[in-house]
Design goal:
Elements: H1 2-26, E1 35-37, E2 40-42, H2 45-48, H3 50-65, H4 68-80, H5 82-102, H6 112-144, H7 147-157, H8 160-198
Antiparallel strand pairs: 1-2
């Protein structure tokens, strides 16, 4: 009978360890609204700190992950890339042909070399104009594009259910590991208690 009781210690430790960690994880998100219990007010960590989480997350994203300059540089690279040049060349070529088609007499004086020079000159002006326009646009966007503020606003507007869903999706394995670790530690503590109680018996 005594041995049976001793064997219950690891099982009880396992259950208590798992349950403690399970409840601790649940209390990260629940209760979602402040719950007054006498002098104590209970609320889940994430619902209570959602605004601070949004601020910190926005700060990390804008400083460590994606800055305004990173986005603007990508946009500028695309505007100066080969794909954009190809589109411009096609548009200029088509525009010059349409212009010549609209003035039949002009084709008598314009040969292929003159047409090529006109195309190259127009393309050069277009490229310089695009680069100048992009620099102005970058200046305006740099003043108006607040990545930190956007992330903070989006996170703060999450419902508590949505926030819990997102965080569980990201941290599901880690939460399961914490629960399992609690069960294992509880079981080991129960085994240690048996060892202590049976020493010298």
């Amino acid at each position: 009978m005594e041995n049976t009781r001793l064997l219950l210690l690891p099982i009880a430790g396992l259950i208590i360890g798992w349950l403690t960690n399970y409840l601790a994880i649940k209390m990260l998100f629940h209760p979602k609204k402040p719950l007054k219990l006498g002098f104590i007010t209970l609320q889940g960590v994430f619902p209570k700190r959602q605004k601070a989480l949004g601020e910190k997350l926005g700060e990390v994203v804008s400083k460590e992950l994606v800055s305004t300059d990173d986005i603007l540089d990508k946009v500028t690279d695309q505007a100066k890339g080969d794909d954009m040049k190809k589109v411009l060349e096609e548009k200029v070529e088509k525009g010059l042909k349409n212009l010549l088609a609209g003035i039949p007499m002009a084709s008598m004086f314009v040969d292929d070399s003159l047409l090529a020079k006109a195309r190259d000159l127009i393309l050069k002006e277009f490229q310089e104009g695009i680069e100048e326009w992009m620099e102005k646009l970058k200046g305006k966007l740099r003043d108006g594009l607040d990545i930190s503020g956007i992330v903070e606003e989006k996170v703060s507007k999450f419902s508590s259910d949505k926030l819990e869903e997102v965080l569980f999706e990201i941290l599901r394995k880690e939460f399961k590991f914490i629960e399992l670790a609690g069960a294992v530690l509880g079981f080991l503590i129960g085994c240690a208690q048996i060892a202590l109680l049976t020493v010298g018996v």
